[in-house]
Amino acid sequence: MPQNQRWTTRYTAFYDAYYHETLAAFVVGRLQKIDLLINLLVAITALASAISGAVLWNQAQWKWVWISLAATAALGAIFHAIARVGLHLQRQGEFRRDFSLIRSNLQIVLFKMTSDGDSEELESEFVEIRNKLAKYISKLGPNIAATPYLREKARRDLDNSLKKLGITQQGMDEDGGN
Questions:
Q1: Burial of 95 by CB count in 10 Å (0-12 exposed, 13-18 middle, 19+ buried)?
Q2: Three-state DSSP state, 71
Q3: Do residues 41 and 79 make contact, with C-beta atoms less than 8 angstroms apart?
Q4: pLDDT, tens digit, for every residue of 17-44?
Q5: Does residue 60 fall inside a structural domain?
Q6: 51 FRET partner, CA 20 to 30 A, in 37, 102, 151, 168?
């Protein structure tokens, strides 16, 4: 396989690993916000329940506010338990770590290719890393937190990062994208 085809194949694997790493980071951020919001809502409702619940309950104009807050907190707690937000946070953190390691290894392969030239040994190293990447990608299931907006944001962020690094599908800039 000619060197430029190898570069394209390796770059594509690198891009995929970097994309999944970036997306996992964004998903973790989103899940942390959801986790914090639900936990705060439940805690505030529980704390306020003893103090203001009785007072608000006896005032007609505040009764619906209290009912709405209590119902929202209860639904949030149920969603939190059913959606297993904590478990998803842990998994996404693991995905990010795994894809980060793969991305780093692939980036090293790209650097070796530009600095030391290509070799069959480097190709073997790449194939091993690419197989790990395929294994990790196959473990990914549907993720409700990875919305189309978040996926596009991850792509934009990744493209900007690669531009700064000077790594493109055509090759690597000598000056690191500057």
A1: buried
A2: helix
A3: no
A4: 999 999 999 999 988 888 888 777 777 7
A5: yes
A6: 37
